[in-house]
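Students often ask what a holo structure prediction actually looks like on paper. The answer is less mysterious than it sounds. You provide the chain, you provide the ligand, and the output is a string of discrete structure tokens encoding the 3D arrangement of the protein together with 5-amino-5-deoxy-1-O-phosphono-D-mannitol.
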Amino acid sequence: MCGIVGFTGRQSAAPVLLEGLKKLEYRGYDSAGIACEQKGTISVSKVSGRIANLCEKTENGRLVPGCSGIGHTRWATHGAPTDINAHPHVSNDGRFSVVHNGIIENYMELRKELTARGYQFQSETDTEVIVHLIEMYYKGNLKDAVMKATSRLEGSYALGIMCSDCPGTLFAVREASPLILGIGVGENFFASDVTALVAYTRNAIYLDDGEFAELTADDMTVFDCTGTPIHKPVSRITWSIEAAEKGGYEHFMLKEIMEQPRAVKSAIAPRIQDDRVHLDDFEFTADELRDIRKIVITACGSAYYAGCAGRYAIEKLCRIPVTVELASELRYNDPQIDEHTLLIVLSQSGETADTIAAMRECQARGAKSLAIVNVVGSTIAKLADHTMYTWAGPEIAVATTKGYTTQLTVLYLFALYAAEKLDLISSESYHKLIDALETLPKMMQQVLDMNPALPKMAKKYNSKGSVFYIGRNTDYAVALEGALKMKEISYIHAEAYAAGELKHGTIALIDEGQPVIALCCNEQIAEKTMNNIIEVKARGAKVLAVARKGNRAILSHADDVIYIPKVEPLFSAAVEIVPLQLLAYYVAKDNGCDIDKPKNLAKSVTVE
Ligand code: M6R
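The corresponding structure tokens follow.
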């Protein structure tokens, strides 16, 4: 997804911008560019492909002089990923330059209008209308021109703007796309997220929609949408630089898989005190909880699958009907949602466009909302009535791992909290489940320690065709996420089936040598899945099973078994996904894939 950075200070801007862009690489991009201003002249350099190409082209920034500038990584939406379509875009008179993250929905009509007025377009992008609008409205006052231009825009945008008439001055504008200001000493910054800022400053201002800022080396003013200066609180960034780097692992994904015991502990520890679940961030009375007639969980991708797995715990413990909806579907479904609905929104980034749109739709219908989000201050966190952070720390790899397991953990905490408030759980079961939750990090660590054979399994189950994942109940939910992990990083077709569905058609796909990953961790139903293993084996499948330690019967059915510890069945999903993450990782590694930045994917999908 596009990323933007801006810098104004006393040192050369280009190297700072290039460093910032490198930190945003994880968001996914296909071209990049920077523009800097020196002595009233703006120089621009842009390339398709990697930031490394931009560093080479600019001799690490040396060829783009100036102490203020803007930079961009682009993930193509309007127009191919070419040098010309890359940002920054420049006005016809060369005085203005703009970078943009988001989508301008009315760009076609603006483009027609501007073309009729004589403005010439170089690119196919929606963004280019912005820079021409600013040129059109500029009458010597950049702030006025920015306000007039942005008032014509419909859609989402985080903008970085510079003008050669205003040396050292940058404007940053936010409307429905993330944008954070960084406050330095004798220098100031903006960026799409904090990873681009932490090397330079820990003091940040989170802009809200409709706000914009004027930055110089020594000053920063934030304005509301009417242009009135406003006071914004300064937040302290607590993420360390190391936390955003690889810490000795070959890939961020592996590092993040290994970090899961710690991440899950961070999600749990502050919320269990004196052997009880305390949710300071979700204070609901028993009456308010009783007023909830149904819970709708909405999210995209892995976050959606975390909802599919977490749903079982909520329904079982709270006896409230739960549906899990893909945000991209829910938003157009005319959903049956009212003030008796609790909407739970799951998102690692907190910026996923479809999830935000679904959330707004449900809120408009009266639903109360609880966001379970990793990124502090993100759009979803701000929009929700209640926000529970997952405290997973920065997740850089495009394929989520600790994001997923911490979302699931917070759903478990919520289920236990609500069940107790609703008086639906005996004290004995409540404390037993609290103990089980507290041991989750240890169980995850054991999975990481106890499966040294996984790289070997990855070789055996690496497939040129498809890999099937089967399971029932919570095991099926895990199968969905396991298959997604395999698909997105190894580019191997992987598909999850509810094991009971095999006979209804899909077993026709099973042939000699077909890899099948069978999840048999849910004790109550593992025996049924073992029958399905026998069925696929009879048709020639090669089966790798994931089962609880102590399940010896599985050894006589599956070709290989990965054991997980004896975890509480209700919370098993958070543990059994770990070997599947590792399996996908090692298959992708064997296949030489770009694990942290899989092709065609972006970390944060901020467009529909
Ligand atoms: O940031 P979010 O959790 O809202 O992102 C949702 C999905 O885009 C995300 O989980 C995606 O499916 C990942 N690539 C999965 O690894």
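The chain has three domains: 3-243, 247-438, 450-595.
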